[in-house]
Amino acid sequence: MPKIVRMVVEVIDELCTGCNLCSRVCPTAAFTLRDRLSSEAGTSRMIVELDHAACYNAQRCLEVCPHEALLMKSLDEPFTVGTDLGTLDNAAVDALCAKTGIPAAAPVCPCTGTTMGELAAAILQGADTPEKLSLATGVRTGCSELCMHPVLVILAAAGHADAPKYPKGYQWYAAAPSLFQHVGADGKLPQALKDRYPEYRLDEEIADLARLRTLAASEAATKNGPGDMQ
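RESULT FIELD:
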């Protein structure tokens, strides 16, 4: 589901101290720290520069800026962010999603409505970090937290678990443990795991989880229209 971006941030040069907190929380890595030019207002040696095309109105920067050096401005021409599933092999998308135990149609970002299939499609098109996934799909450009688990899980499933953390780990969260991490290629849990925890009836648990995820994906597939994040 595409996200409509209607606002982007603007840096107030004279108030920016170059503390770099904004760049450390931006999910799309839209900020760059550089030397301040002599023609730019302000007294600090460093200043941040914004890549406007990479600003998706996440507003994490506004929350952490200690000097109120950032403000949001409405765009004259809003733009849409999303990954087109129609250009890829659906079987490849489904196969990658299956490795995570989350159906392709399941929404994994409550803020933008991004689905697991969109994340898979973006990865198949070359995205190999959370920041690149955010740029390609809009995921993590709302609260930046609730969708971190599926983002890390599908990156790991695609062989990108060792992707470098950007920057200094400020916006990375650990993937939550899940039974689906132990499901084999045959769709079953290892017998050793079931023998170790017989009291938990893990076969029934994994079947219930699969049904719930399939139901969520089915409900999501019936909804239409772009995600409209102001």
